[in-house]
Structure formats: structure tokens, C-alpha cells
């Protein structure tokens, strides 16, 4: 994520950096974030490092999924050639590396696609870069990597009724104006310790098609055996060497999908779903490590509380200090 900081020189004190970060985050999050004026921010810096960045998003909202970006050719058609490559790409005149020691993002609550969501994310030791380019400065929060993985804890809470609303809006958005998803029913329950049962249905309206689709599945989450060679890399699992423990010996959580069902009584919808159902059922029994392929993001502990309120807590990497 790149946060614009306005004209040079770059800010070097808390009092100077705070307002510039707030304005830059609003600019970077537009138009996805509504009511950005409700955002509150606190920062403590020792440039080039930032000791703390605390962002409170309570009262803000994401009311629609991000708009799919289009290339210039999609927007301009044959209006003429674009700028020369050397005019498009600007090379940063200067880039100074640093570390964001602690990043806290809270929302108690915020609105996401019509759902009231609670967020409490506490991340640490994120690589950043201070860039100076054409008279302006910016703060770049670098993507995690195998050499600098993501560490911390993320907690999310949402009502199952709110989740239904968000799913309907997202499904309608994905149909891109050609249809809608409505009448969604969803139940997420704890089938057993470490297991979740998901049952749901929804009506798809696509052109002349009106069909109800039903889904069901059980997800079992367990800790990989850190002392077992190739844990989580059995038949049908993820990439070779996935699962097991992280470099520091912290085991990665594994998810196993079972009892998958995808169906519709509508013959046309059933035919359309048959291929997707076959692909999903092929995942049954696979022990899938909850980590990215490059090891930059890995879930080392996961807890889910079900009921009218759904709560998820995930520890990433080694978790917070």
C-alpha cells in the first residue's frame, strides 16, 4: 500500500506525520471507504522507523466492492496512442527503508457491504519505505515476503444475519449487472471441537434464469504436527513441502474439507453447477495448509466462535509479542 504524504520535505515528527498520514490514507482508500472523516489515527515515529500506527475505522463504511479497474484501452477505445513508456514510469529519486514496529487497525464497528463488522488487527515488524518522487513524498507499506513474513493477530466479528447481507451484495456485484443473488439463507455452526458446519442456499436471478442453489460442507481445522516430516503434504494436499512448521518451528494450521454438497432442483442451474461441484468435491479429504505459497502469510492458531454472532481470531506467524 502506498500512502501519499504530500509535498517534500517528508514529515519527521509525530505532529507532522499524523495529519499527513490521515489525509494520505483517505486518498489511498478512495472511493472504497465511505465516511472517512470518522477515521481516527495516532502515530509515534522515530524516522525512518515508526514505533506505532494506530488506525481506528469505527464509523466508516465500505458500501460496495472495489470497482474493477480497466486499462486505458478499455476507457479510451481508439482515441489515440498513450504516453510513451518513459513518460508513464517515474523512478523514485530516493527511497529510505524503515520498519513499522506496530500496526493496529480497529473498527468497533464499521459497515462492510451492509454488515456490521468488528475488527481488531495487531500486526508487527512491517517493512516500509519513505519515497521522494517529483517533489512529493509517500510512505510505502511493503507486501510481506518469505524473508519478512506477517506476524500478529487478527480478530473479526460479524452477525450471521449481517454476513447474509454482505454475501447477497457481493454475489450481485460479481454478476456484473446481468443478475442478482438474493434470498440467501446461511447457518454456520460448530459441528465438533475444531470443526465447522456450513449450510446455505440462495436464489440466483440471471436473465430468464431463476434458481435456488444449495450448498453444504464441513471444515475441520487442526494444528499440523511440527515433528512429523511433511505434515500436511500428504496425497492431494498443497504444494510440496507445505504444512508442518514454519522456519521458527511454529506449526501451521491445516484445514480439511468434507461432506461437500452443491445442488439445485432447477435442471439448467444443476447442469451449470455440475462442473463446479466436481471441482469442489475433488478437494474433499485434502489437508490444506493455511498459508500462502511463499510462506509470507501463515495461520499458526485459529479459533472460531459460532452462534448469532460469528467471531474469528487468527494468529499469523509467531503472533504478537
From TrEMBL:
Region feature Disordered, mapped onto this chain: 63-97, 226-249
Domain of life: Bacteria
Biased composition (Gly residues): 231-249
UniProt-recorded name of the protein: DUF2993 domain-containing protein
